[in-house]
From TrEMBL, chain A:
Gene assigned in the entry: LOC118428119
Protein family per UniProt: Belongs to the RING-box family.
Protein name (Swiss-Prot/TrEMBL): RING-box protein 2
One cellular component (GO) term of this entry: cytosol
Predominant location category: cytoplasm
Source organism, top-level taxon: Eukaryota
GO-annotated biological processes: intracellular signal transduction; proteasome-mediated ubiquitin-dependent protein catabolic process; protein ubiquitination; ubiquitin-dependent protein catabolic process
InterPro entries from the UniProt entry: RING-box_E3_Ubiquitin_Ligase, Znf_RING, Znf_RING/FYVE/PHD, Znf_RING_H2
EC number(s) reported in the record: 2.3.2.27, 2.3.2.32
Enzyme class: transferase
UniProt keywords, alphabetically: Acetylation, Cytoplasm, Metal-binding, Nucleus, Transferase, Ubl conjugation pathway, Zinc, Zinc-finger
UniProtKB/TrEMBL annotation, chain B:
Keywords (A to Z) from UniProt: Acetylation, Isopeptide bond, Nucleus, Phosphoprotein, Ubl conjugation, Ubl conjugation pathway
Family the UniProt entry places it in: Belongs to the cullin family.
Protein name: Cullin-2
Pathway(s): Protein modification; protein ubiquitination
PROSITE patterns assigned to the protein according to its UniProt record, in alphabetical order: CULLIN_2
Originating species: Branchiostoma floridae
InterPro entries, per the entry: Cullin (IPR045093), Cullin-like_AB (IPR059120), Cullin_homology (IPR016158), Cullin_homology_sf (IPR036317), Cullin_N (IPR001373), Cullin_neddylation_domain (IPR019559), Cullin_repeat-like_dom_sf (IPR016159), WH-like_DNA-bd_sf (IPR036388)
SMART domains on file: CULLIN, Cullin_Nedd8
Stretches assigned to the Cullin family profile domain: 412-642
GO molecular function: protein-macromolecule adaptor activity; ubiquitin protein ligase binding
Length: 102, 769
């Protein structure tokens, strides 16, 4: 056992890698790509379902919607909002859907 | 003919008579003149024999049967009424003469009465048959219908005609029982008392006499038992009460409660047998009830006084007796139930206060389960599994489980129970078989059901589940799923929703890895390392409680990050990935030693070690600027590598100050070729537990708000108090919410315009759609 170290120590070549990477067990977390974590309409975090969906146990269906203005809300919160007011609650621009999360 | 006492023979005989009668009618249909005195004389002679069960030759019987017919259809006037009156006279005289005999045999009253009753009642049946034609053609037709009776019509009921059998019994009742009843009943009661004292009595006579009170009313369909009850049963029950009140008093002097109960149970069962020997079945329950009142209800204080000791000393036989007795009287069991509850509670609290050492969770759970199973077994075996005691067990266990070990801090039980499950679900060398683990997890649900703060349990459980899943040290995914399903069954879908999402994330991640590898092949790309990823859904996982240190991803990993990001963005819309370095790990191989080692390390350790591919020596400051790690985190990780002898601290100083120089230990040796650098999993700190409780509070607020929205949406408008009650009842399955917290949530929802204060009524809220 002691012999392994003794041989290699002095003869090490500088260019060789000392450690090579074999395996990486990575962990990542996904979340909606939003500027603000909280839905400004219901004031619940967008990663959690809005209160109405939580009350009805429809957490899985509660996705996020982005407008052309880049503001985002729960899709269900926004659908109710636009029935009364077709402007983004944050910047007052006309609400045009840019994309819906999936 | 009448010596044939056998019922079957008797019926056969009657059938013969019927056919004879039919024959006779065809023979002499024509009514004829009949001399009443002469015919009645013949009938009377035969009837005297019939009523005393003397032998009547068949031809004579047949002739009398036709005589009755002849009188009923006599020309020019039917003589039925006369026949009826004469027969009635005869029976009355007969019974009166019997009465004289019976009444004069006072010392032998019951036996004499019984003998004549036997004869007379049988004889009356035969007479009823002999008068078959009179009964069916004359009396039944004249008898008023029930409807006529109901409307009254002012008819004197005494003038009612009766079939001959009924007439005979009615006469017996009037002329025998009535005048004799005082003596009769008194003697019956004396005899039964003798029986209770263990003396010899004649069951046939006693039962026969008593039953005659029912039998004489045989035709009285509505009031069959009235005579029996008025004449006998009422007095008998009084007498029974008197007798056993005295007995109970006698037993109480100089006996222990245990002896008293034993005697009483014996006495009760004897008396039940006695009822069956002597009485009409309708009396059985009344007698038993009377005895229970005298032995149990009258002495509840005495019996209750014994419950405390008996329950605590676990005197099973006494408990069984006590239960048998107390259950029979109204509210008798309440005190015993309370004693059992208190005792279980004390036993359980005692058991859990005695636990010490390092595996507190296991000791706690197994102590509670032991107490639960011991008493639940006892209740099944000794107390007939009575629901009231099962309820007491539940209340006691709930008190035990939710007791606070320290009044100043929250109850430990939810945390301990979660840790117990974690211990069972973690792969390790516990030496337990799969089915043992399964059984223990199932049993843990028993404790879980008693928890008040199920959400606290859930918080700890989810943290531990997260660790097991990410570190891959779960016994099996099947066991994890089974446990989540058990919790779901016990507490509902919503409760396990996040646990289930975690479980699903792991399964979906396996799919991502497979698809990612295919995508890489299609794009002719290679990473050069073995890459595996878990993608977790934010919000579902109890992460991010502690702020992890930042990290500059080692250049060796940059491509993996870039490619997977691309892959993921192609598949999903609007999602972003955050890499959780604190949860990543990796394997590196040493290339500078003859023997090559494979080392498993955390992401931070790996980032430090990989820097030495570029330089022989590095200062702490250089490492810091390349990795961008926070100072504290960096120090701990470098130290762990130095401790593992992979790096050498050239300055030899204790402190890893910024200018300390580090180099790789080129003489590294290890017996094993594959090993792990002990990761710096900080021991769970007090703060972490506190954080968990704080997070639970946050969850509770959200939960309550959702509950309020759900209730208000369904009910549209509600009074303040009703709403509070509804919220409490909906939340109770997972925790006991405080009123002040509910009030705060209502305020918040008013601010968020989910609900509003009603304009119409004070103290009322309305839902805003
Ligand atoms: Zn919202
Ligand atoms: Zn929603
Ligand atoms: Zn906007």
């Amino acid at each position: 056992m002691a012999d392994t170290g003794g041989d290699n120590g002095p003869g090490k070549k500088a260019a060789d890698k000392m450690f090579s990477l074999k395996k990486w067990n990575a962990v990542a977390m996904w979340s909606w790509d939003v500027e603000c974590d909280t839905c400004a309409i219901c004031r619940v975090q967008v990663m959690d379902a809005c209160l109405r969906c939580q009350a009805e146990n429809k957490q899985e269906d509660c996705v996020v919607v982005w407008g052309e203005c880049n503001h985002s809300f729960h899709n269900c919160c926004m659908s109710l909002w636009v029935k009364q007011n077709n402007r983004c609650p944050l910047c007052q621009q006309e609400w045009v859907v840019q994309r819906i999360g999936k | 003919m009448y010596v044939e006492r056998n019922k079957n023979l008797h019926q056969k005989h009657f059938a013969q008579q019927a056919s004879f009668w039919a024959q006779k009618i065809t023979m002499s249909l024509k009514p004829r003149r009949v001399d009443f005195s002469e015919t009645w004389g013949k009938i009377l002679a035969t009837v005297r024999g019939v009523i005393t069960l003397s032998k009547v030759p068949r031809p004579t019987w047949n002739d009398r049967f036709s005589d009755v017919y002849a009188l009923c259809v006599a020309y020019p006037e039917p003589l039925a009424e006369q026949l009826y009156n004469e027969t009635k006279n005869f029976l009355e005289q007969h019974v009166q003469s019997l009465y004289k005999i019976v009444n004069s045999s006072l010392d032998n009253l019951l036996a004499t009465y019984h003998a004549y009753w036997q004869e007379y009642s049988k004889g009356a049946e035969y007479m009823n048959q002999l008068y078959g034609y009179l009964n069916s053609q004359y009396i039944r037709k004249q008898k008023l219908s029930d409807a006529d009776l109901a409307y009254g019509h002012g008819i004197d009921l005494d003038e009612q005609l009766m079939e001959i059998g009924e007439l005979a019994l009615d006469i017996w009742r009037r002329l025998m029982i009535e005048p004799l009843k005082g003596n009769l009943v008194q003697q019956l009661l004396q005899e039964i008392e003798k029986d209770r004292e263990g003396e010899q009595t004649n069951q046939a006579i006693l039962h026969g006499v008593i039953n005659s009170f029912v039998h004489v009313e045989e035709y009285n369909k509505k009031g069959l038992l009235k005579l029996y009850q008025d004449l006998f049963e009422k007095r008998f029950l009084e007498e029974t009460g008197r007798y056993y009140r005295k007995e109970a008093g006698r037993y109480l002097t100089g006996t222990t409660c245990s002896e008293y109960m034993e005697k009483v149970i014996q006495r009760l069962s004897d008396e039940e047998m006695r009822s069956r020997k002597f009485l009409h079945p309708s009396s059985y329950d009344k007698v038993t009830h009377e005895c229970q009142q005298r032995f149990v209800a009258d002495h509840l204080r005495f019996l209750h006084g014994e419950c405390h000791d008996m329950v605590r000393k676990d005197r099973r036989e006494d408990m069984r007796r006590m239960y048998t007795l107390l259950r029979t009287v109204h509210n008798g069991l309440m005190l015993m139930v309370q004693e059992v509850e208190d005792h279980i509670k004390e036993t359980g609290l005692d058991a859990i206060s005695n636990i010490t050492g390092d595996n507190l969770p296991t000791q706690f759970v197994e102590s509670v389960l032991e107490v639960h199973s011991r008493f639940s077994h006892m209740i099944q075996k000794t107390l007939s599994g009575d629901q009231q005691f099962i309820c007491a067990l539940d209340k006691a266990c709930s008190s035990i489980v939710n007791s606070r070990q320290d009044q100043r801090s929250p109850c430990k039980s939810p945390e301990w129970l979660a840790k117990y499950c974690d211990m069972l679900l973690k792969r390790s060398t516990k030496g337990m078989s799969e089915s043992e683990v399964d059984d223990k997890l199932s049993a843990s649900i028993t404790v879980f059901k008693y928890l008040d703060d199920k959400d606290v349990y859930q918080k700890f459980y989810s943290k531990m589940l997260a660790k097991r899943l990410i570190q891959g040290n779960s016994v099996s995914m099947d066991a994890e799923e089974a446990m989540i399903n058990r919790l779901k069954q016990a507490c509902g879908y919503e409760f396990t929703n996040k646990l289930h999402r975690m479980y699903t994330d792991i399964n979906v991640s396996a799919e991502h890895n497979k698809k990612f590898n295919e995508w890489m092949r299609e794009n002719k790309e290679e990473l050069g390392i073995h890459f595996n990823i878990y993608v977790l859904q934010a919000g579902a996982w109890p992460l991010g409680l502690t702020n992890p240190s930042p990290l500059n991803i080692p250049q060796e990993l940059e491509k993996s990050v870039k490619m997977f990001d691309m892959f993921y963005k192609e598949r999903f819309n609007g999602r972003k990935l955050t890499w959780l370095h604190q949860l990543c790990n990796g394997e590196v191989r040493t290339c500078f030693l003859k023997k090559s080692y494979i080392i498993t390390l955390s992401m931070y350790q790996m980032a430090v070690l990989l820097l030495f591919n570029g330089s022989d020596k590095l200062t702490m400051a250089e490492i810091q600027s390349s990795t961008q790690m926070a100072e504290g985190e960096l120090g701990k990780n470098v130290q762990s590598l130095v401790d593992a002898k992979l790096l050498i601290n050239l300055d030899g100083k204790e402190q890893l100050t910024p200018n300390v120089v580090l180099t790789v230990n080129v003489e590294y040796t290890n017996k094993r070729t594959k090993f792990k650098i002990p990761a710096l999993y900080q021991k769970e700190t007090v703060q972490e537990v506190e954080q968990a409780h704080k997070a639970v509070d946050e969850d509770r607020k959200l939960y309550l708000q959702a509950a309020i929205v759900r209730i208000m949406k369904a009910r549209k408008a509600l009074k303040h108090n009703t709403l509070i009650q509804e919220v409490i009842s909906q939340s109770r399955a997972r925790f006991n919410p405080s009123i002040s917290m509910i009030k705060r949530c209502i305020e918040q929802l008013i601010n968020k315009e989910y609900i509003a204060r009603s304009n119409d009524a004070a103290d009322e809220y309305t839902y805003i759609a």
